[in-house]
Design goal:
Helix content: 40-55%
Order of helices and strands: HHHHHHEEEEEEEEHHEEHHHH
Radius of gyration: 21 Å
Number of helices: 12
Structural class: alpha+beta
Mean pLDDT: 90
Number of strands: 10
Largest sheet: 4 strands, mixed
């Protein structure tokens, strides 16, 4: 197997880096963080403007056909784009739900009308999406969801609640899973809908996380009417569309790129910081731990590119996506844990503190890493998928 990138792919990576150097101001290189939009309206506006610039260039969804706002590039080139944006901490958070999850699901399962109506706005960065899957009593066991969608003439009437809905307070649309046949087995009788968030009857309640950031929400649906044309795929067959959605969500290269950037900063810190008069890097235990993380980031990267190569061959990754998600999300915890130990007491200081090391990013990353192994399917769920679908083990 040839792991080298083609000259065209290398040129594309360089073009992205040049763009980022030109478009991200100096203050962002020093202070910026893609998650800042969760705590600052100014950061949200900055991220929105940046995303629209990418959309005008056709870069947000570079592998999509040009008629839908993409550039018809390869999936490998799309993965290179995601990797460079994540490594350089570009503020893409407002766009990724649409480009990585909703758009691919509509491409695979949507009608031609839905593709014409929704794909171009996603690719241009003009709209924000959220995902209405998890419920208070249906998280890892998603097929147990109880939000109901009842047919009523040309509409469905939706009642229920969703929780941990990332970015719902900023979203224009929700990709919603609801039960349309309560008498069917739980994996059947579920349908997938496109729901405008300004529809009457929707209430969004913020959930402030332990970083004091507003990222998650609980969303209530009270007699929300959605047109039948907003049904994605066949009625009662939405579980299969949901599985596609989760596979796209779990396959990102961003986790390895973010971990690699932080690891590089930790390596530099270990070279310059001293303890008892000696550089941290002189300690063989420190060197071994950093080396182990370096190996881990490369493994995570290869798992993500494996998913991209499958997509390039027209395959829909399944357990391969779970492997990438599992390893990458747990890697982020390992990097953050090692980083906090290296930084010592200064590592727990928040961003903005004059005594914080590495801009306080390790404290933020550590708190964020707990959600990484839960959202988009817990690590336990990923292991079950790998065992059953990948290794053929019995349930």
């Amino acid at each position: 197997m040839d792991f080298r990138f083609t000259p065209a792919e290398q040129a594309w990576r360089q073009e992205l880096r040049t763009f980022l150097r030109q478009e991200l101001p100096q203050w962002y290189w020093e202070e910026g963080d893609p998650e800042d939009w969760t705590v600052s309206e100014e950061a949200w506006e900055f991220a929105s403007q940046f995303v629209r610039k990418l959309g005008r260039k056709g870069w947000l969804a570079v592998a999509w056909p040009k008629e839908w706002g993409g550039q018809a590039r390869s999936y490998i080139e799309q993965t290179i784009f995601a990797e460079e944006m994540a490594y350089h901490r570009a503020p893409l958070g407002r766009a990724t739900m649409g480009t990585r999850i909703v758009g691919p699901t509509i491409i695979v399962h949507g009608t031609e009308e839905q593709k014409r109506e929704y794909l171009s706005p996603i690719a241009s960065g003009e709209v924000v999406w959220c995902q209405g899957f998890s419920e208070p009593n249906a998280g890892s066991d998603l097929a147990s969801l109880q939000t109901r969608a009842v047919p009523d003439g040309d509409d469905f009437v939706i009642n229920g609640t969703k929780i941990w809905t990332s970015g719902a307070h900023k979203a224009d649309f929700c990709l919603l899973a609801a039960r349309t046949n309560p008498d069917a087995p739980k994996h059947r009788g579920i349908s997938l809908f496109i729901v405008p968030m300004k529809t009457p009857g929707i209430t969004v309640v913020p959930i402030i996380d332990m970083r004091d950031a507003h990222y998650f929400n609980q969303v209530f649906f009270d007699n929300v009417r959605v047109p039948r044309r907003n049904l994605i795929g066949q009625q009662d067959r939405g579980w299969y569309a949901i599985v596609t959605t989760l596979d796209f969500e779990r396959s990102g290269v961003e986790r390895s790129a973010e971990a690699r950037r932080v690891l590089e900063e930790l390596v530099e810190y270990a070279r310059t910081a001293t303890r008892n008069g000696r550089p941290l890097a002189a300690d063989p235990v420190v060197r071994h731990r950093l080396a182990d993380l370096a190996i881990g980031t490369e493994v995570a990267r290869m798992l993500a590119y494996r998913v991209a190569s499958m997509q390039a061959r027209g395959l829909i990754p399944n357990y391969e996506s779970s492997m990438s998600k599992l390893f990458g999300s747990e890697l982020s915890q390992r990097v953050a844990n090692t980083g906090l130990k290296l930084l010592g007491q200064a590592g727990v200081l928040v961003k903005g503190s004059r005594w914080a090391k590495l801009k306080g990013r390790l404290q933020w990353m550590w708190l964020e890493s707990f959600a990484n192994t839960i959202r988009a399917g817990t690590s336990e769920i990923q292991r079950n998928i790998i065992a059953v679908r990948g290794l053929g083990l019995p349930r």
